[in-house]
């Protein structure tokens, strides 16, 4: 499953690199079936009071209006369940994910669909429902040094958040490929892009 979330088009590093990742993957795994969703140019709506009411109503008790309210969310969840590998282009906005990608997260973290809530089990109240999935995140930022040990690592709220939320629903195999220095451009940006492309090639070859 290939997801792009940047509102940028031609100027987007995450779009360009996620497309290169998918093409490289397809070259190494020609049998792969790829599903694409562009939430940057086709934004996902934020949740509403009606959505919350529908999501927390037992499936067999939902009205037709509630089923319509959850229709998009159900399609998004189905896409996740059917895919084995996720490739997601997610630019860093103000040290975290964009509001558009957060809206996507809120639509897919669904009780009874991607996780269970079982308060009677004190050992595991929350149980993830996605298993055997792999997530590759391609992110881009204006500055650099957001990687572990980097000068900006303490204000990187994108990677830790993605690890937290996807692990919560069961995706534990997560890799992050980062591009930095977009605001600086020049050699710094080109070096960062080269490192990202090298990582993509190595992953696809595996």
UniProtKB/TrEMBL annotation:
Its EC number is 1.6.5.-, 1.7.1.17. InterPro entries: Flavodoxin_fold, Flavoprotein-like_sf, FMN-dep_NADH:Q_OxRdtase_AzoR1, NADH:quinone_OxRdtase_FMN_depd. It catalyses: 2 a quinone + NADH + H(+) = 2 a 1,4-benzosemiquinone + NAD(+); N,N-dimethyl-1,4-phenylenediamine + anthranilate + 2 NAD(+) = 2-(4-dimethylaminophenyl)diazenylbenzoate + 2 NADH + 2 H(+). It is an enzyme of class 1 (oxidoreductase). Its cofactor is FMN. Keywords: Flavoprotein, FMN, NAD, Oxidoreductase. SUPFAM superfamilies: Flavoproteins. Gene3D superfamilies: 3.40.50.360. FMN binds at residues 92-95. GO terms for molecular function: electron transfer activity; FMN binding; oxidoreductase activity, acting on NAD(P)H as acceptor; oxidoreductase activity, acting on NAD(P)H, quinone or similar compound as acceptor. Binds 1 FMN per subunit. Belongs to the azoreductase type 1 family. Homodimer. Quinone reductase that provides resistance to thiol-specific stress caused by electrophilic quinones. Also exhibits azoreductase activity. Catalyzes the reductive cleavage of the azo bond in aromatic azo compounds to the corresponding amines. This is FMN dependent NADH:quinone oxidoreductase. It comes from Capsulimonas corticalis. The lineage of its organism: Bacteria, Bacillati, Armatimonadota, Armatimonadia, Capsulimonadales.
């Amino acid at each position: 499953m290939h997801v792009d979330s940047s509102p940028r088009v031609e100027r987007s590093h995450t779009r360009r690199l996620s497309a290169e990742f998918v093409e490289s993957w397809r070259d190494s795994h020609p049998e792969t079936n790829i599903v694409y969703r562009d939430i940057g140019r086709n934004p996902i709506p934020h949740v509403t009071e009606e959505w919350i009411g529908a999501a927390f109503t037992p499936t067999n008790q939902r009205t037709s209006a509630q089923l319509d309210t959850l229709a998009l969310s159900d399609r998004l969840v189905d896409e996740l369940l059917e895919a084995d590998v996720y490739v997601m282009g997610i630019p860093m906005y103000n040290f975290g994910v964009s509001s558009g990608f957060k809206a996507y997260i809120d639509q897919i973290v669904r009780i009874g669909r991607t996780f269970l809530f079982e308060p009677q089990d004190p050992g595991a109240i929350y149980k993830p429902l996605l298993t055997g999935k792999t997530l590759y995140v391609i992110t881009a930022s204006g500055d650099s040094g957001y990687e572990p040990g980097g000068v900006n690592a303490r204000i990187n709220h994108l990677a830790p958040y993605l690890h937290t939320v996807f692990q919560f629903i069961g995706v534990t195999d997560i890799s992050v490929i980062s591009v930095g220095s977009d605001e600086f451009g020049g050699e710094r940006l080109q070096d960062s892009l080269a490192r990202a492309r090298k990582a993509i090639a190595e992953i696809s070859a595996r």
